[in-house]
Amino acid sequence: MPEVHVVLLPGDGVGPEVAHEARLALQLIAPDVGIEERLLGAAAIRATGTPLPDETLEACRRADAVLKAPIGDPEFDAADVRPEQGVFLLRSELGVYANLRPSSLDGVDLVIVRELLGGIYYGARGVREDGTVFDTCEYRPDEVERVARRAFELAGRRRRKLTSIDKANVLETSRMWRRVVREVSAGYPDVEMDEMLVDNAAMQLASAADQFDVVLADNMFGDILSDLAAAVTGGLGLAPSASLGDRPGGLFEPVHGSAPDIAGRGCANPAAMLRTVALMLDLALDRPAEARALERAVDGSIASSPTPDIGGRASTTEFADAVLGALAA
Fold it and tell me: Do residues 192 and 161 touch, judged by C-beta distance below 8 A?
């Protein structure tokens, strides 16, 4: 097995299409990196009956990094076993609690740090006898503290400004969130910290996103705000993400979904997946020069060979070929 080993999860819908282009780019820019493909999501359910097969999980645990394409299929939206369950379990098993979602365009350069393993997505849920349905938002102080420290450390390497998002005027979890973040901020005196209610944050992102540097939010707020930030800076087809924990490596995936309505048509934008490869090269494989080269190639292709979602006519392959050509040159 190669010294550096990446697990590639091609996913569902347009996932295999953008994963193929990501694989070609990684092989070109880092030919010594070994790549092992495994199943996750709807494809895994069809093949094995579970969205996260044991073989996939073990491979991901052994890998230096995991590169995941989008998953999901409408066929399983109302099923008891769904593709998304595999993603939640994989994140939990890998211990990746800090989800970094950068967004940049025309003077906007921000990173949303989303807590990934707690909150309403992992809390108790169910249906009571009277038909009431509930989803519980729960956080422990240590869960907030560890993601806050990761966000402050990131802000210290950037423009030294952090905005913490909550709904402390309504939610008890947010009041604890605010208290813990303030305590953590005392250990980072060089980082300017402010607090913003989530509804105001949405408005500010839509109208004046250039004011933000690092934005810290809980699982659900971060999920929603990061999609808004992506829309402000060009769309979900351009947005990468990195999910990190305390161990080396991490889980790297584009923000967008599997887009089953355009799967197989060759028009999916691979930019987010390729930018995700750049994040992986930088944050997990310690190859910043290669990461910058890939970022420049993707930026150039967005200008020269845009796909339909960003106003162009290039196919998935044509866009990726432009990236590969820039890298080769």
Answer: yes
**1 pLDDT above the threshold of 70:** no
Domains of the chain: 1-105+236-329 (3.40.718.10), 107-232 (3.40.718.10)
CA dist 222 and 218 (Å) reads: 6
What residues are labeled active site? 121, 167, 199, 223, 227
pTM tops 0.90, yes or no: yes
Q: What is the pLDDT of residues 154-183, one digit of tens each?
A: 999 999 999 999 999 999 999 999 999 999
CA-to-CA dists, residue 298 to 10, 208, 284, angstroms: 20, 26, 20
Strands (E) in the chain, as ranges, are 4-9, 33-37, 65-68, 98-105, 108-115, 125-127, 133-135, 161-166, 192-197, 214-217, 240-244, 251-254
Token code pair at residue 80: 């008891």
Mean pLDDT of the chain: 96
Give the Cα separation of 76 and 188 in Å (integer).
45
